[in-house]
Amino acid sequence: MSQKVALITGITGQDGAYLAELLLGKGYLVHGLKRRASLFNTDRIDHLYQDPHIENRNFILHYGDLTDSTNLIRIIQEVQPDEIYNLAAMSHVAVSFDTPEYTANADGIGTLRILEAIRLLGLEKKTRFYQASTSELYGKVQEVPQTEKTPFYPRSPYAAAKIYGYWITVNYREAYGIYACNGILFNHESPLRGETFVTRKITRAMARIFLGLQDCLYLGNMNALRDWGHARDYVEMQWLMLQQDEPDDFVIATGKQYSVRDFVNAAALELGISLRWEGEGVDEVGIVEDVRCETGDDRRETPLKPGDVVVRVDPRYFRPTEVETLLGDPSKAKEKLGWEPKISFEELVAEMVREDLTSAKRDDLVKKHGFKAFDYHE
Ligand code: NDP
Ligand code: GDR
């Protein structure tokens, strides 16, 4: 059988990195679309990099952008992919309120541009298409838990753009017979998660607070409820969706729900800190109740003590319209694709905290040696 060829947009993002690794492991030739940036933006995939001067590479990056049709058409023509995974997006819900037009262009029309390229190039029967749809489509939820049949009610420019991406994918499947699928993925996280999404913001900040590199973590809505899974589990599902006899749309979720506050508690406990919560709304604070640091534990040098306030609410992080609660029902994926998430909430939090503690220790060491450590936080 000839080697399968995949094109991943958004390859420099969290899912792009995990998916590229998965497909390379399966023997694919992987092409990726990366944006030109003023700084290197390939941190998450540097371990997969292959010197462009060697022959027979199976990992090839192309400069491109979802807002540039001619660029997309040229790359798809050159690559002749068997599978396209459209993961690229302006993916931050809060930021989409600041950049609504760009978000619509990249996340909505960007999806159309790829589907049109498939059609214009006559690849309808060859190229399978995966669209990164999202639980944000449910927004103001109409039913609990959410399934493939639950009505959508988007609550942000991001979700409104993604709803266009969802429906244009369905339409090109029905109109032109393209094998095109929507993965309606609920939140999925990992140590590769962008630092401004709430989970990574929490694990990174708690590790830094633990080592005395940061004083306090400022958050927005502590009561938001999410169904959090692990990105490594979820990219497997993206691939599986393109390997079926018929294209279809699937909800990918764990079926379990936690609040932002639960996530903070879990991350703190992983570090040996128990928190107590006082106040309400913008006055809510998370206070250290106990710090368990046993002798011999390499984490024992924490400067924290009971009574320290380590979490505060900052209304700056509230959104004009919030998605208060999301909970997915992944029964269809389980039944039709035999898929179930393998990594639990506790394992996810533990892995993220562990990785962020390692980075924080590195920053601490750099600082102790008189060099400037990277200390940007939102
Ligand atoms: P990330 O934000 O980590 O990655 C987004 C990727 O898209 C990055 O590679 C980014 O490039 C790239 N990108 C952004 N804008 C453009 C553009 N105009 N042209 C080309 N590339 C662009 O997102 P995730 O990996 O977490 O998510 C992957 C996809 O899945 C996204 O579409 C997201 O909306 C969707 N999704 C994510 C969920 C989650 O919980 N993670 C849940 C449901 C859906 P750069 O690195 O240069 O910024
Ligand atoms: P979300 O993820 O909006 O669900 O979108 P995010 O982690 O940004 O927010 C989750 C919830 O936490 C609340 N929250 C905060 N969020 C951020 N980012 N920063 C804070 O300080 C903070 N405090 C509280 C939010 O209000 C929200 O309720 C993610 C993205 O990956 C999308 O691309 C994807 O489509 C959806 O998940 C499914």
UniProtKB/TrEMBL annotation:
Enzymatic class: lyase
Domain NAD(P)-binding per the UniProt entry, residue ranges: 7-352
Protein's GO biological process: 'de novo' GDP-L-fucose biosynthetic process
Cofactor list: NADP(+)
SUPFAM superfamilies (alphabetical): NAD(P)-binding Rossmann-fold domains
EC number: 4.2.1.47
MF terms (GO), sorted A to Z: GDP-mannose 4,6-dehydratase activity; NADP+ binding
Keywords: Lyase, NADP
Top-level taxon of the source organism: Bacteria
InterPro entries on file: GDP_Man_deHydtase (IPR006368), NAD(P)-bd_dom (IPR016040), NAD(P)-bd_dom_sf (IPR036291)
UniProt-listed Gene3D superfamilies: NAD(P)-binding Rossmann-like Domain, UDP-galactose 4-epimerase, domain 1
Catalysed conversion reaction: GDP-alpha-D-mannose = GDP-4-dehydro-alpha-D-rhamnose + H2O
NCBIfam families, A to Z: gmd
Family to which this protein belongs: Belongs to the NAD(P)-dependent epimerase/dehydratase family. GDP-mannose 4,6-dehydratase subfamily.
Entry-linked HAMAP family: GDP_Man_dehydratase
Function description: Catalyzes the conversion of GDP-D-mannose to GDP-4-dehydro-6-deoxy-D-mannose.
Stated name of the protein: GDP-mannose 4,6-dehydratase
Annotated gene: gmd
